Fold VCBS repeat-containing protein.
Amino acid sequence: MISPVLPGPTPAAVMQTPTFVDSGQNLNSALSADTALSDLDGDGDLELVIGVRDTKDSANPCGLRIYDPANAAGTQWTKHVFDPGGVAIEDLAVGDLDGDGHSDIQIFLNLTHWMTGTDFIL
């Protein structure tokens, strides 16, 4: 067995076991298919990006959701919904796709209904 050797002393933080606490937040997600964290607006905190595949109800449709922390404690969030009910997101990726220094969101879609005849032409 080969063990990795890290240069210098191992930081104490690496040796600690993280503790996760339920904050009681309810983001009202339907059936989210994929999530990512990124500082989309450049304010130094991470936004939660959620791709929602299925509609839960009229208040929680499929689409792209971005939750922006509204306070430093992370107990309040501002919800932004893009294309509600119009796109079923299967996967997503967040990164600087075009090299401009800003995060971009790439979404991968799922078929939302069957199409017949000339309903869909490539």
